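HOLO CASE FILE
Compound: S-adenosyl-L-homocysteine
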Amino acid sequence: INTMYTLAENNHKSLIDNLKNRGIIDDDEVYDTMLQVDRGKYIKENPYVDTPVYISHGVTISSPHMHALSLKRLMNVLKPGSRAIDVGSGSGYLTVCMAIRTNVLENKNSFVIGLERVKDVVNFSIENIKRDKPELLHIDNFKIIHKNIYQVNEQEKEELGLFDAIHVGASASELPEILIDLLAENGKLIIPLEEGYTQVLYEITKKNGKIIKDRLFDVCFVTLKKN
Ligand code: SAH
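Model generated. Tokens follow.
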């Protein structure tokens, strides 16, 4: 069969259905979550095309297929009551998906936080969330914070607590120690790591205090900046 498909859709549902038809979304929970977060509210230019789009300050919103694949890996640690952090939250798209999936609005045990290094990008994401899910901006268990992950100090680390789900939307040369510290027992961390000229997405889990690393597939993200 010649499986023809078009990459450019003109509305959010078509984009998500297209990802499903291509087999990229093969999980009902990922489908339901992404359907509730309209990419058109997070980026103006070509929101319904399966490609990263430039925001500003060298930053891009990741492609829809990348959001889908990362979310899928995190689904078993993203539940009502889970604690999740999106490092390099950018547009806020994935952070809001985490909020939907953990039901932060109704479940006060759920805690979802986006960490973003560039102040203008933080403001951009807050505008996006205002457009899409303004109610998230009025609760204590959802936050977008202007912070470089490498500059989280001991006290801030204590305040953040431990996370069941950690997503990193930028690639690091080495696994940052801070992320291991923030990972809860049985928690899961998704992070792109540089390997030579390429990047590989890793899934890292903590089991009985031990770190297990799974190499997933090659990816292409912007860099996780040291300062
Ligand atoms: N998932 C996001 C990805 C945005 S690109 C989205 O789809 O919109 C990655 C983001 O990581 C950028 O916004 C960049 O500013 C941010 N970033 C880079 N280094 C960082 C660091 N050390 N700490 C926090 N955020 C960082």
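CASE NOTES: Strands lie at 53-56, 59-61, 83-87, 111-116, 142-146, 163-168, 183-195, 198-207, 210-219. The first strand starts at residue 53 and ends at 56.
CLOSED: yes
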